[in-house]
Write a structure and sequence with these properties.
The protein is mainly alpha-helical. It has two domains: about 1-35, no CATH class; about 40-140, Cytochrome c-like domain (Cytochrome Bc1 Complex, Chain D, domain 2), CATH 1.10.760.10. It contains eight helices and two strands. It has a two-stranded antiparallel ribbon with strand order 1-2. Strand 1 and strand 2 form a beta hairpin.
């Protein structure tokens, strides 16, 4: 994600306003800066924007030991316990299903009411593109898979 933001910021760096300076600067830039975003990178970027705009970060990126919802940074790639007692891996399928049907993926130790209200307010059941983008973002900021 940092590379994506850096690419946006660096795109105009080093230019003097002339078109030849811009071409020269871009042609010398590393490929990861000048290459177009992949579909996955576009989904992650859209998901990041949605997470901020829709208020998800207020409950999920607090960095506190106990917040309203699980911290996205330590969520994807980990096993969690559902309220019913079953343990599941937080992967893309779990994230998508949890965003579409949060009542079927209630996490032990968290009040489900805020998430249920947020999903209803955002009409996520009717927005599969937004669900895919949010799931891609949450999965991206989880731990490295090795």
């Amino acid at each position: 994600m940092i590379a994506l933001a850096s690419a946006s910021l660096l795109a105009g760096c080093g230019t003097s306003g002339s078109s030849s300076g811009a071409r020269s600067s871009i042609s010398n830039a590393p490929a990861y800066i000048t290459a177009p975003f992949t579909h996955e990178e576009q989904l992650v970027e859209q998901g990041a924007r949605l997470a901020v705009a829709d208020g998800c970060t207020a409950c999920h990126l607090m960095g506190k030991s106990q917040s309203v919802g699980p911290d996205f940074a330590g969520f994807a790639g980990h096993t969690v316990t559902l309220a019913e007692g079953r343990r599941v891996l937080v992967d893309e399928d779990f994230l998508r299903e949890g965003l579409l049907h949060p009542d079927k993926a209630e996490l032990k130790g968290y009040n489900p009411a805020p998430m249920l209200a947020a999903v209803r307010r955002l009409h996520l059941a009717g927005e599969p593109g937004q669900v895919a983008a949010l799931a891609a973002f949450i999965e991206q900021i989880g731990p490295e898979q090795g």
